[in-house]
Amino acid sequence: MSKSKPSGLSRYEMLFIVPNNYTEDEAKSIVEKVESIIIENGANIVFHEFWGKKKLAYVIKQNHYGYYSLCEFDIERNALTKIDRVLRLSNEVLRHQIISIPVVSDEERLTIKEKQTQASKKEEKEKPNNKEKISKVAERKEKKDAGKAELKDLDQKLEGIISAKDLL
Amino acid sequence: MSNKKPKECFYCVNQLDVDYKDVRTLRRFINFYMKILPGDRTGVCAWHQRKLTQAVKRARVMSLLAPTHK
Q1: Does some domain include residue B39?
Q2: What is the pLDDT of residues A31-41, one digit of tens each?
């Protein structure tokens, strides 16, 4: 969308979590509700994205999972506090975080995502070459993958044996 | 230790902005106990290291990253 923004407004980004005791459709309707609240306060929504159900890194109010949703909008600073208050009182939103961000066009947003994935891919390629760089997490991941591969081989062998017996 | 990871800044090299939503890259700069690594360990330039710590903390608030190892 347009890169320019009306004067007096600033670009903000809000990530919020809808608790897991709703179904996905209900969660989506809640997201729409939240967005309508934002619009009511004189905001202009530029971009929104529903991430879907994700596991939370830690338990929040006995919720292990949550629906993440992202929303970017232009708004005045004063109106922002109103939105913040409403969402903090709401039980339908588990947690939210509003952050001011630089103005980004849709094309730039795509390139940023591409860059992020490319960078992480590059890293994976580099890692096996020098052992010093391998972090503990990566090592464990590799081990897990190796374990999975072995299991798969075993499964295949087992299946082969079973089918052979059936034939006999 | 001075001889640890003398390399260049990850964000400058890849021309990326630090993003708290990009957990996959943030993971690189965190140790097993989910602690933020110091700048001399991450190899990230001072400017990006400041952004990085901010981003990790934001990710923790939104439960994208755990605050500690279990």
Answers
A1: yes
A2: 999 999 999 98
Do A136 and B65 count as a contact with CB atoms less than 8 A apart? Answer: no
Q: Which domain holds residue B45?
A: 10-61
Residue B4 lies in a domain: no
The pair phi, psi for residue A95, each rounded to 5°, is -160, 145
How many residues comprise chain B?
70
Q: What whole-number distance in Å separates Cα of residue B5 and Cα of residue B42?
A: 7
Contacts of A138 in chain B (CB under 8 A): none
CATH number of the domain bearing residue B55:
4.10.640.10
Domain-embedded: residue B5: no
Pick among B3, B61, B63, B64 to test the A interface (most A CBs inside 10 A) = B63
* Interface predicted TM-score (ipTM): 0.80
- At A92-131, the pLDDT tens digits run 999 999 999 888 877 787 888 888 777 777 766 665 554 5
Instruction: Provide the pLDDT for residue A135.
Output: 63
**How far, in Å, are A53, B16, B30 from residue A35 at the CA level?**
18, 29, 34
Q: Assess if residue B16 is contained within a domain.
A: yes
